[in-house]
Amino acid sequence: MAKKAVASLQTGSKRLTKAIKMVKSPKTGAYTFVESIMSPDEVNDWLKK
């Protein structure tokens, strides 16, 4: 993983975070982007996967 980006979103009373990470494909070696929207507490665990 070469990069990570995190943006905070607010919808109503819930605070959410959109996290984007680059993942290298084991087959081709190409990088793809994986996006997920989650609570701010879960971001570090998700980026470590």
How would you describe the overall organization of this protein?
The chain has a domain at 15-40. The protein has a three-stranded antiparallel beta sheet, with no helix packed on it. Helices cover 12% and strands 55% of the residues. The protein starts with a strand and ends with a helix. It has one helix and three strands. Strand 1 (4-11) and strand 2 form a beta hairpin. The protein has one helix at residues 43-48, and strands at residues 4-11, 14-24, 31-38. It is mostly beta strands and 49 residues long.
Spatial strand sequence of the major β-sheet: 1-2-3
**Proportion in β-strands:** over 45%
Mean of all residue-level pLDDT scores: 83
Helical/strand content category: mainly beta
Fraction in helix? 10-25%
Spatial shape: elongated
Order of helices and strands: EEEH
- How many extended strands? 3
Rg over C-alpha atoms, rounded to the nearest angstrom = 12 Å
**Which residues form runs of ≥5 with pLDDT under 50?**
none
Biggest sheet architecture: 3 strands, antiparallel
Number of helices: 1
Terminal-residue CA separation: 10 Å
InterPro entries: DUF4295
Write the SSE topology.
Blueprint: E1 4-11, E2 14-24, E3 31-38, H1 43-48
In short, what is this structure?
The chain is mainly beta and 49 residues long. The chain has one helix at residues 43-48, and strands spanning 4-11, 14-24, 31-38.
